[in-house]
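Question thread 4412

I'm putting together a teaching handout and wanted feedback from people who do this every day. The idea is simple: show students a protein as raw sequence, then show them the structure tokens that encode its fold, then repeat with a second protein so they can compare. Below is the first pair exactly as I plan to print it.
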Amino acid sequence: MEVLTVITVLLIKVISKNGRRRINRSARAFEHYRFKADPGQSLLRIDKFLSDRLENSSRTRIQNAANAGNILVNNNAVKPNYRIKPGDIVQVVLPTPPREIELIPEIFL
């Protein structure tokens, strides 16, 4: 299976235009993933397929991304119940979870 993972500082929104989906960008952090289903891939729901491949991503998070139009299969937005077929190219854009950073000053004596 071919896998591409990229983390960028872009906000991706899928916008419908004439029935086609396109990507619009503005500033925020998102995780980008690209998978190509194996030729022997059995029919499997997209949310299950991705939850098996994405670490630290719950099935609910993946379903929310699909409902928001952030999961594309062969360049078309899909819903969480879409079934992966052999050779499908899946592109995923997930918001990077917020990270809390606490800075603690060091005191040198």
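The second pair follows. I'd like the answer to focus on this one:
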Amino acid sequence: MFRGLVLIVLGVVLLLLQFITFTTHVKGIHIGPFKTSADAKTTIPVSPFLSGLVLAGGIVLVIIGRKRKPEFNQYRLTTVFGRTRSFRTLKTQTDPFRMGMLEVSEVVQ
């Protein structure tokens, strides 16, 4: 789901900017004490189609991430010393509480 949110933000930023500009430092000739260098500015145009595709991909990832949340059984146990412990197990795993291996004081829904 985090990757989907990153793609959504990136898609919106690319839709707003429509081009990316960056500067690179280019070294020139070095002869004795003489040195030359220059800064080169590069502009890359970004297609609105590509920006929309990135945005749509992010939305799809967020929707898939929300549907795939695992289901858990949550239990609250009371130990011999009177302390209460809460934990959960995946519903798809073999559940030691339902098999009778451990006694449960309370099942939390």
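Top answer:
Good format. For the second protein you could add a caption like this: Helices lie at 2-17, 48-67. The radius of gyration is 29 Å.
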